[in-house]
Amino acid sequence: MRSELILVLRDFFVREAAAEPESTSERLPALESLLASADRRPLIGGWRANLAARFATGEIAAMAPAAVAAQAWLASPPLPAGQYWFATPVHYFAGLDSVHLHPDGLLQLSDRAQTALVTDFARVFGQDPWVLHAFGRRELLLSGPPLAQSGQDPAQFAGRDVADGLPRGAPAATLRRLGAEMEMWLHEHQVNRQRERDGELPVSGLWLWGALAVHAPAAATATMASPAGSRLYGEDAYAEALWRVQSGYTAPLPAHFEAMELTGGRHVVLHPAALQPLERCWLLPALAALRARQLSVIELLAGTQWYRLHWWQLARFWRRRVPWWEQLA
Question: Strands 83-94, 99-106: parallel, antiparallel or unpaired by DSSP?
Answer without folding.
Answer: antiparallel
